[in-house]
Amino acid sequence: MLWSDIARIVITGGLLGILVGKIVMNRPFYLERMLPKSWLPIVKKINFRIFLKKVLVAFIFSSISLVAVYLVGSLMNELGWKLYSESEYLFSKLETSSPILFLATILILPVFEEWIFRGILLEEISLRTSSRVLGVLTSALAFGFFHLSNPGTYPAIAIPLTIGGALLGICYLLNGLAGSILSHILYNFLILVM
Q: Cβ of 41: how many Cβ atoms within 10 Å?
């Protein structure tokens, strides 16, 4: 990994961390909602029908996101826009190089990304602008551009990932944070397995 890749990760992650940290300091609710004492009572009340509905909605949105991102990415490749470098892209050979990183990419990263981009940024933007649409679009843009910090990516990758972020934002509005997390987990799993 080059120093420029390390700088991209540290600077982007640091700026996002400062922004989210400032929001969480002012509204500790965002942090508290991730603690088991907050969501465990809700989970205990969910019946099988509600659980099945959440899983189905998450699966539908992960499938739509996968198709949309693939189609837009393919079109961009046809037009000569490179999205990432096969040899340098961090996630290209992840599933064969490190099973632990593979599992972290599928299970852990989606939890934090959804909490930050949908659970905090979407909510804050929606609250401050009184517009859920603006919240979805702005958090999707932030999500797409945040992924430019991944080693081996080119600026064009922000376009399909912004579309994916918007679909995850809609899933969040319809299905809650748990639903968007599940959708993101399914999406990452399908991407890495394919």
A: 9
DSSP letter for 79, please: T
Ordered per-residue pLDDT tens for the chain, 194 residues = 577 777 888 888 899 999 999 999 999 999 998 888 888 888 888 899 999 999 999 999 999 999 999 999 999 999 999 988 876 666 656 656 777 877 887 889 999 999 999 999 999 999 999 999 999 999 999 999 999 888 788 899 999 999 999 999 999 999 999 999 999 999 988 887 77
Q: Which residues pair with residue 84 across a beta bridge? A: 153
Going from N- to C-terminal start, the domains of the chain cover 3-193
Q: Is the pTM here over 0.85, yes or no?
A: yes
Q: Could you identify the residue written with the tokens 């609710």?
A: 29
Instruction: Tell the residue number behind the tokens 């919240």, with chain if given.
Output: 135
Q: How far is CA 54 from CA 57, 67, 118, 170, in A?
A: 5, 20, 17, 13
Per-residue DSSP letter, 117? I
Distance separating alpha carbons of residues 176 and 101, to the nearest angstrom: 27
